[in-house]
Amino acid sequence: MSRATLRCGFDWEGWRRSREREGAYVLRGYLPAAMTGDGASLWRMYMQLVQAEQAFKDIKGDLAVRPVHHQFEARVKAHILVAFLGYVLLASLRMRLRYTATGLTPRAVLEKLSAIRMVDVCIPTTDGRLLVMPRYIEPEADQQLILDKLHLASPPKPAPRIRSGAVIRPAAAPPCSADL
């Protein structure tokens, strides 16, 4: 091939046609006779598919539900139920955030609030028993702001318990909750 035989061209008409379709979303599908001619209903059905796919992504990502290979049908059903309930709670949180704390995602809220924990304060008594007082860690300012925006409060603190048994020595004191 020489320079004299090489020719280059541009399909201007094809380029114009492609420019006319930019920004358009084309769906092709079969609709029952009752819905023919209604592009809006096709779009709604497609968006339901998108929402279902997003739900599976949420279950795998935000809720960290991974495949578990159960041996019994009852356990499979229980696993599905727990995953579904987790998704419902996640969707409820998303809806609540939409109206009260725009800009926050459920993942960000869960990560921020996951630092709030319950601890057992263990106090040895003189008669050899333990006084166990469950307490919540005080929320930091940003955590409290999220709780306020969502109109949530910490649950009431459980009543103290007295546990009989050996007193934990301070030198080798394991966590009290592990001892219970």
Topology:
Elements: H1 12-21, H2 39-60, H3 73-100, H4 106-113, E1 118-124, E2 130-136, H5 141-149, E3 161-163, H6 176-179
Antiparallel strand pairs: 1-2, 2-3
Structure commentary:
This protein folds into 2 domains: 78 residues, no CATH class; 65 residues, no CATH class. By secondary structure, it is mainly α. 45% of the residues lie in helices and 9% in strands. The relative contact order is 0.08. It has a 3-stranded antiparallel sheet with strand order 1-2-3, with no helix packed on it.
Provide tags for this entry.
180 residues; mainly alpha; 2 domains; 45% helix; elongated
Shape: elongated
What is the strand arrangement across the widest sheet? Answer: 1-2-3
How many extended strands? 3
Domain module count: 2
Query: What is the radius of gyration computed over CA atoms, rounded to a whole number of angstroms?
Result: 30 Å
What is the helical fraction, as a range of percent? 40-55%
The string of secondary-structure elements, in order, is HHHHEEHEH
Described by strand count, sense and barrel closure, the largest sheet is:
3 strands, antiparallel
Mean pLDDT: 78
SS content category: mainly alpha
Distance between the amino and carboxyl termini: 86 Å
How much β-strand is present in the residues? 5-15%
**Number of distinct helices:** 6
Low-confidence stretches: none
